[in-house]
Amino acid sequence: MTDNAEEALRGRAVPARRGPFGDKQQLSERVAAYVREGIMVGEFPPGEFVRTEHLAAQLGVSQTPVREALMILHSEGSVRWEPRRGYRVVALTGGDVRDLFQVQAYIAGELAARAAEHLDEAEIARLCSVQDELADAERAGETDLVDSLNHEIHRTVNKASGSARMASLLNLTVNYVPLRFFGTIEGWPSASAHDHAEILAALRARDPEAARRTMVGHIEHIGELLVAHLTKHGILA
């Protein structure tokens, strides 16, 4: 990595060392999430080799969870294995990002449609209250709070769908883009405040099709903001 990447690395959360119960799987997943975020913010540029021993030393972990993490990323298409050379970062394209968000939009839209038929009055009132807090946080420029409240709204809707397995599938796709990353995207806080208002109106009306349509539109909107952000910073191929 570059010196700038090294400096940025120190400001990011690193995976915890393995505890006494040997949570190796969790550790490898956390390392994978760390590298995923590094790719998204340009710390691992396209074509660069991710050196197992170097990354293990930086994160203070053994090489085993790093190798396992790179295998996870290889299965996702984020890195490519080259014999006798190692894992090379695969270039990310706008089409890749749009494909990912289209999948998210399809699943999230279906969950919202189902939630429209299952949310009770207390849950809808709570969602509206959280949305008011989110709008206030957006106006105040408190992006961390917007992030937290945004997550609460989506989690509540997904849970209310009564479709736990489908929600789990959505979580798998969401893992491709680090949640902490969204706060850095221009236009994301205001998009959350605006788009959510339309989604909540559909949920209050108990209108599954409107809930699906507005949720799909919201997720695709966020995807386009991310494409614009990554393009602006020279990260997309």
UniProtKB/TrEMBL annotation:
Ranges for domain HTH gntR-type: 25-92
PROSITE patterns with a match to the protein in the record: HTH_GNTR
Keywords attached to this entry: DNA-binding, Transcription, Transcription regulation
GO molecular function term, any single one: DNA binding
Protein name as catalogued: DNA-binding GntR family transcriptional regulator
Organism superkingdom: Bacteria
Organism of derivation: Prauserella sediminis
Disordered: annotated segments: 1-21
